[in-house]
């Protein structure tokens, strides 16, 4: 009798799912019918996060400049400038194709349940940064959404992502009151690099006093201006930023130049 029930349970679930799909069809963000997330997109989320900070112009700091070729420690350094990223950034992949469709469906397409699928995919990136920083469970600070965006979507999607990540055990969610002091709309790429963010509230002050180690969370990184603004605000408040984890990056480095935290 128990074996019969065990065999009937998956069948009953599928009958219920198929019946419900007549009212609300199951459709993956990539367009495939029959599942909220198709096997191909599920496999895409299982990919190892890649380092993308070298592709973010706003995250680069000038560390050296040479007007002529120099030799240092037996290494010939050509004339030019050297840049060092402000913080490491890990992304699941490039903001294109199925990953772009998934992000847009999650952010603006009403498929807020996808956050629960994104969280386990981002957890390895959070753990990588935590291990490199020597901490077990860092605080997860989401980049805040504008009030108008929260009202349109029905929730703060990055804050919910931080809470879903916390449920995986990768860290502890710490949504902060933060507002940009410069808007991004209508600004050129050079102006976007100077974005400033102001932190407010007792949670930020307390985390600063405790010198909390944090990981920034966001959906998509382009120039890196928002991550730079969050990094500067958190650092000025007294926190230690271990890095950032995002779902997608507008650009990703070539596979042979991606690097890892152990080698940089």
Automatic annotation (TrEMBL):
InterPro entries: ComF/GntX_DNA_util-trans, PRTase-like, PRTase_dom. SUPFAM superfamilies: PRTase-like (SSF53271). It comes from the Bacteria. Residues 187-251 form the Phosphoribosyltransferase domain. Pfam families: Pribosyltran. Belongs to the ComF/GntX family. PANTHER family: DNA UTILIZATION PROTEIN YHGH. This is Amidophosphoribosyltransferase. It comes from Brachybacterium sacelli. The lineage of its organism: Bacteria, Bacillati, Actinomycetota, Actinomycetes, Micrococcales.
């Amino acid at each position: 009798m128990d074996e019969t029930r065990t065999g009937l349970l998956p069948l009953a679930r599928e009958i219920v799912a198929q019946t419900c799909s007549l009212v609300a069809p199951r459709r993956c963000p990539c367009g495939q019918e029959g599942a909220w997330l198709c096997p191909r997109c599920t496999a895409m989320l299982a990919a190892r996060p890649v380092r993308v900070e070298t592709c973010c112009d706003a995250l680069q700091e000038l560390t050296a400049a040479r007007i002529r070729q120099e030799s240092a420690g037996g290494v010939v350094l050509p004339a030019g400038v050297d840049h060092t990223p402000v913080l490491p950034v890990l992304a699941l992949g490039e903001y294109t194709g199925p990953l772009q469709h998934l992000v847009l469906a999650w952010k603006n397409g009403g498929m807020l349940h996808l956050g629960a699928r994104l969280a386990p995919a981002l957890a390895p990136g959070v753990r990588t940064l935590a291990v490199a920083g020597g901490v077990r469970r860092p605080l997860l600070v989401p980049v805040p959404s504008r009030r108008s965006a929260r009202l349109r979507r029905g929730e703060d999607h990055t804050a919910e992502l931080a809470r879903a990540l916390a449920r995986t055990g990768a860290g502890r969610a710490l949504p902060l009151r933060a507002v940009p002091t410069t808007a991004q709309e209508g600004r050129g790429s050079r102006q976007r690099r100077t974005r400033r963010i102001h932190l407010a509230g007792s949670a930020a002050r307390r985390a600063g006093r405790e010198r909390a180690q944090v990981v920034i969370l966001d959906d998509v990184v382009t120039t890196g201006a928002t991550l730079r603004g969050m990094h500067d605000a958190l650092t000025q408040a007294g926190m230690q930023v271990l890095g950032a984890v995002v779902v997608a990056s507008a650009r990703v480095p070539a596979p042979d130049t991606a690097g890892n935290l152990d080698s940089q």
